[in-house]
């Protein structure tokens, strides 16, 4: 399973990369607002900080305008993935950009049928938002399971990129189901390494080691 960092914070991306924890990055207009810098500069910096796919989202609503924005974003770096919303215009733009060899991440997916359409439109990634479904009491992880089954039934190569992840449990559940990628905020990714028994065990080992009076080097 691949991990993407869902952030526009370049320092966090570098840190996660140094720990070998990420295979790519996703951004969205809200994350760009939070970063508070020029959009194109941020995407160029992130693409330099990570060799994996970096999703950059268009903001146009009409297909031709989305295609124009998407092509311009794709020119920023070889690892840009153009992010398009799951609308009819987004699907049209997806087909055209995919036919031109540009990788597309179709975002804001909330149903299995939407995911089916994105795959038929040639999307490289489909982003089902599981946390936002959970927020309205619909089982987000169940949606990942449905999409996995449908894509496997028909051999679609579109990768399932579980998004809107809120917890380590979300990541584990998506991994058990076979999502191809999980994109999560840095804090959730860092939390995967934490376990209280690891801390407790290490503390006890170090105390006993100190009592031996020895040093390794
Ligand atoms: C995915 O690409 C989105 O950027 C993201 O996962 C949205 O998450 P949120 O629902 O926490 O805003």
Automatic annotation (TrEMBL):
GO cellular component term, pick one: cytoplasm
Keyword Cytoplasm attributed: yes
Pathway(s) per entry: Carbohydrate degradation; pentose phosphate pathway; D-glyceraldehyde 3-phosphate and beta-D-fructose 6-phosphate from D-ribose 5-phosphate and D-xylulose 5-phosphate (non-oxidative stage): step 2/3
Subcellular location per the Swiss-Prot or TrEMBL entry: Cytoplasm
CDD domains: Transaldolase_FSA (cd00956)
Primary location group: cytoplasm
Transmembrane segment boundaries: none
GO MF annotations in UniProt: aldehyde-lyase activity; transaldolase activity
Protein name, as recorded: Probable transaldolase
Gene designation per UniProt: fsa
């Amino acid at each position: 399973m691949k991990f993407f960092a869902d952030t526009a914070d370049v320092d966090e991306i570098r840190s996660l990369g140094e720990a070998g924890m990420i295979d790519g990055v996703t951004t969205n207009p809200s994350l760009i607002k939070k970063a508070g810098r020029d959009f194109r500069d941020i995407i160029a910096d992130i693409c330099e900080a990570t060799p994996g796919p970096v999703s950059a989202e268009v903001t146009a609503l009409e297909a031709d305008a989305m295609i124009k924005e998407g092509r311009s974003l794709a020119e920023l770096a070889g690892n840009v993935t153009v992010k398009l919303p799951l609308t009819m215009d987004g699907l049209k733009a997806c087909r055209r950009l995919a036919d031109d060899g540009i990788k597309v991440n179709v975002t804001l997916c909330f149903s299995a049928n939407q995911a089916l359409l994105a795959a038929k439109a040639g999307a490289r990634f489909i982003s089902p938002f599981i946390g936002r479904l959970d927020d309205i009491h619909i089982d987000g992880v169940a949606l990942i399971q449905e999409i996995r089954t449908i894509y496997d039934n028909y051999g679609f190569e579109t990768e399932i990129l579980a998004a809107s992840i809120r917890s380590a449990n979300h990541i584990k559940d998506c991994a058990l189901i076979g999502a191809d990628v999980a994109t999560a905020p840095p804090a959730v990714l860092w939390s995967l390494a934490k376990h209280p028994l690891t801390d407790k065990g290490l503390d006890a080992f170090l105390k006993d080691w100190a009592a031996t009076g020895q040093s390794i080097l």
